[in-house]
Amino acid sequence: MNNTKKYLVSVLVSICIVGAFGIPLGDPKFFIQAIALESSFIALAALSLRSFRYAYIPNFIIAGMVIVGNTASPKHLEIMSTLHPFYNAIVLIVGGYILQGLLLVTNGMALKQYKKTK
Q: For residues 1 and 16, what is the distance between their CA atoms, to the nearest angstrom?
């Protein structure tokens, strides 16, 4: 496994860890959706580890959806701008923007490396 793929999988695992901390903090009415999103990141980590060619498109799509969803949610914007509650704000900023942006970058690098080897 090349370094780029290792970075990609480590970013996906980091997203899973931050998401696991964030699920109990979220609104209980969205618990099922949060579990589904978390499960998709776990599946993407496993799929990226096993066969990258099936995972690069879903990686781009889901990372983009999470960023857009966080930006479009007035409640999320309020939490992040006021930093109240602080722990929720940190989870939203780190998991919703920093790690998702990192996922887009590492996925792009892995795709470039994958195309170069093919």
A: 21
